[in-house]
Amino acid sequence: MDDLDVLQDSPVNLRNGVPEVDQEEILTGLFKDGETLRYRGNAEEVGCYVAAVPLSKENGYFEVTIVDSGVRGAIAVGLVPQSYRLDHQPGWLPHSVAYHADNGKLYNGNPVGQRFGPKCSRGDRIGCGIRSENIETRAASVFFTKNGAEVGSVEVGVSGEGLFPAVGMHSLGEEVRVDLGAEWVPEEDDSAMMVDGHEEDWSRLIDIRVSGALLEYVGKGKSIMDVGLAQARAPLSTHRHYYEVEIMDAGEKCYIALGLARQDYPKNRHPGWSRGSVAYHADDGKLFQGSGVGDAFGPRCFKGDIMGCGIMFPRDFILQEEGDRDDPEPAVSVQNLLYLNEEEEEDEEEAEPGQNVPRVTVFFTRNGKLMGRREMALPPGGLYPTVGMLSSGEKVKVDLHPLSG
Question: Does residue 300 sit in helix, strand or coil?
């Protein structure tokens, strides 16, 4: 039985491609099969891989492709000393640095990350390299890329043993492919560097790839559990109360849904299927509101159609917007700029005694024409623009800010 057979039969932490057993701790976490790493821990422990050779001038860059984001996408790519503790994510300890896929943050020798770049998900390539080293200060300029475009760089202290490529994982189902011999050539065209600029607009991208304003479904599309989900970073507010989606490619089934959902909406559910959500579905023209059973609502939508969704807020409405889930910030009040008209206010049902849950009116459009409205309770933190897709080849172009005021 060779080393590879051993690795496939028992989960271990890896250093230099071979199992490592600490006399004080026996850690579990990763399988290695050629260039592929798979997380096989119990979700309470970190799995970490450290390459055998440090980066150098001759070999100063490597890439990691996310094959599967798993449950949380807690994948880290970076550089560490050879003696790095394998029960910690890269970037958490001194003389290490890493770009974390789940939140887009940079961890530079500290368990508290800083805002750095877009989040990464299935199909994305995360690259890491050394641009230059200062022998006198024992520091290196380390840069990171996403899908070939540079995200940013940072100065990192270098220990005597150098900086070694490292990958950390921390949730079930995560799988990556490591290319230690990858090459990277800086983009000469600045416009090419901005192809992923719109990713900052999204807080979650599950089986969906972003290219500018274009969203493309990259999931399996074999069952209702393969929903691709894109959820905006900010909820609709009285400043930004409406957004639109243009169907660029209907794919095999046009299982495209446009709507609003609470911030913690489940990842494998089309918008509208679960509580705290509402959505207009293109394939059948039905409206789904917190239920897997839709109601007849409007016409079906096809390639070229533009679907819109917005909120009409009650008079004097104030939304307490929540900050980033991983980096909470104080709530911010926003001034109301859009009111329901007087007739609509008179038709509003009064809340039951003791209830203080605000209610709003959600409306949908198709090619600029109003399709209908639905009233619903506003979840804590608001309702977030959420787009769902579920069949191969589906592509949509999103405009999160088609209107102002």
Answer: coil
